[in-house]
Design a protein that fits this description.
It is a single chain. This protein is mainly β. Helix content is 9%, strand content 41%. The longest helix has 6 residues.
Length: 179
């Protein structure tokens, strides 16, 4: 398994090596020892979640106040355009936007450190995204920024076909930064 860094400090992309033959394929989706060697420990309170979205759906941009949450994200079925924004005050990459293709062909896993905003757009008819989160969800800590905030200028690759009412009503990047 290869591990790559990106433009946002602390973000890691885990790239497995699938074994393919006439039966199909087998791949290790995550290796705790390799993660630990790169500082990734989601702890015993990890929560696994999954979402299913149809083509063009955007989910995000979501984050959490307080301690935030670290998570490992992958597309179990289909493909998504995954986007992160560094929202950690004092971070050398504060405000940086980075995007990744996560799909069921490459099996890449994205490690998202606490303090980042996260969102994605489904690129296939059906896209299932799995999350391993380091602590239970606490709705009172939720924050969100509009997916089309002009200060973030996120380039979504397809027209947005669906978005939740909550995400449609999300605040601005400027408001989040102002606190």
């Amino acid at each position: 398994m290869d591990v790559r860094t990106c433009a946002i400090e602390g973000v890691l992309l885990f790239v497995p090596t699938p074994f393919r033959d006439d039966r199909g394929l087998f791949t290790r989706t995550f290796d705790t020892a390799i993660g630990a060697a790169h500082g990734v420990d989601l702890g015993p309170a990890a929560q696994d979640s999954q979402s299913r979205s149809r083509r063009g759906t955007v989910r995000g941009m979501h984050g959490r106040h307080g301690r935030g949450e670290a998570k490992l994200v992958r597309a179990a079925h289909g493909a998504v355009h995954d986007v992160l924004v560094d929202a950690r005050p004092g971070s050398p990459t504060f405000g940086t936007v980075a995007s990744f293709l996560l799909d069921d062909e490459g099996f890449h896993h994205l490690y998202v450190p606490a303090g980042l905003l996260h969102g994605f757009q489904a690129l296939t008819e059906v896209a299932d995204v799995c999350y391993r989160i380091d602590r239970p969800h606490e709705p009172s800590e939720d924050v969100s920024v509009a997916h089309d905030d002009p200060d973030l200028a996120i380039a979504w690759p397809q027209p947005v076909t669906a978005i939740s009412d909550r995400d449609r009503a999300a605040g601005s990047w400027k408001a989040l930064v102002a606190g």
